[in-house]
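Reopening this one. Same input as before:
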Amino acid sequence: MSIVIITGGSRGLGASAAIQCAKHGMGVVLTYNSNPEAAARIVGAIEADGGKANALQLDVGDSASFPGFGDEVRNALQASWGRDTFDALVNNAGYGVYNPIATVTEEEFDGLFRVHLKGPFFLTRALLPLMADGGHIVNVGSATTRVATAGVAPYASFKGGLQVLTRYMAKEFGDRRIRANSIAPGAIRTDLGGGLNDEFEAMLAGQTALGRVGEPDDVGCMIASLLSDDNRWINAQNIEVSGGYII
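Same output, byte for byte:
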């Protein structure tokens, strides 16, 4: 059984990815920041469907906590699967701040940087010794790196950096046959940044070729598929998952 670690797996895209990966027969370790009840619900849903999952607390913006988190992962792997390694890492955790450049504070900028670029960089580094050779890293980016959307400059900039980092991961980890890819979701119906009101959703749907905004499972299914052996030759790519957003 392959085992995947999904950061931010208690809600939104991460929760969908956790459930879909379990449906594909993977063991799941999902992380949550401040809502253990939500994480427990996802673990419960996976176990009710015959899968196996664990939830661990992690603040991706606190890189000093990563060595300790690695110890927790090692213990969870041994307790639940009798293994010392895992097979895939999905760097998904994130949040949004929507301000124009002229009003973004340094604190807001630094917070987004820590979660969306610094966190994935150093978390991946911390967990590499526990990742099995032939593993896979999926970094969750954003279609805002391709389409400039007013108010999301810091967020989009760090997601763009994450896409570049993905290619470097593929290059540097290739001797261990570890693949690295990024995905770029478009507008998805989640609570990120406060969610979508009807007017905003209608505008986004009108800018999407398939005529609607995405649902979490549109992305969760993509992540599970990308992690499967069916896509074993995809490496160092950024794949937009947006239904044809502003094409």
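So the earlier flakiness isn't reproducible anymore. For the record, Residues 3-240 form a domain with the Rossmann fold fold (CATH 3.40.50.720).
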